[in-house]
Amino acid sequence: MRKWMILICIILLTGCAEKPEKTSYEETKKIVTDTLQTEEGKNVIRKMLSDPEFKELLILDQDVVKDSIENNLLSKEAETFWKDTFKDPKFSETFAKSMKEQQTEIMTELMKDASFQKDLETFFGQPDMQKQLETIMKSSIMRKEIEKVVKETINSPLLQTKWQELIQAAGSEKEGGGGKEEEGGGGGEEKKDEA
């Protein structure tokens, strides 16, 4: 990072040497940006990035990272901060949405894994677990939740057209089915008369 600062200082000094008058922040910024976009500026950056000493500066020391995690992320203050932060419904929702894709991928991969499926079967096959599931499924709270989910599903705008199609298909099947029964019934009477 020091060399970056040195590079910027050199560029600024070069720019100042060419123009003895004072330059504004915007002018200095434009000079630096223009210089970095030239082929010469790009070559300087490439050389810096290939320099072993500069690479060492960019690589973070493992002890520094470890200390930072222990002192900041795993501290009591951080624990309190995260607990308070996750109490905020908006933050929790945003966090859940950001992780949704990764969680879906993980669950999809796990469901394809034979050993995971076997572990699930073993877990849910335990007598205690089956009793708990049965109790939960029979509870009034669970019935209300299922009823709520069913209502939401039925009223979902995404499924309204599907429901209409299913109702129309069922109606046309009844109309078509009724005609066949009448034809079949009539044929049976004719056979009786012939007998």
State the helical fraction: over 70%
Low-confidence runs (pLDDT<50, min 5 residues)?
179-195
Q: What is the H/E string? A: HHHHHHHHHHH
- Give the beta-strand count: 0
Beginning-to-end CA distance, first to last residue:
106 Å
Structural class: mainly alpha
**How many structural domains are formed by the residues?**
3
Quick take:
The protein has about 200 residues and is mostly helical. About 90% of the residues lie in helices and about 0% in strands.
Characterise the protein shown here:
- This protein has helices spanning 2-18, 25-37, 39-50, 52-58, 62-73, 76-87, 89-112, 114-125, 127-138, 140-155, 157-194.
- Residues 179-195 have low confidence and may be disordered.
- It is 90% helix and 0% strand.
- It has eleven helices and no strands.
- The chain has three domains: 2-62, no CATH class; 94-138, no CATH class; 142-177.
- With 195 residues, the protein is mainly α.
- The longest helix is centred in the C-terminal third of the chain and has 38 residues, at 157-194.
Kindly list the characteristics that best describe this protein:
195 residues, mainly alpha, 3 domains, 0% strand, elongated, disordered C terminus
Q: Strands, helices and their partners?
A:
Elements: H1 2-18, H2 25-37, H3 39-50, H4 52-58, H5 62-73, H6 76-87, H7 89-112, H8 114-125, H9 127-138, H10 140-155, H11 157-194
Helix pairs in contact: 1-2
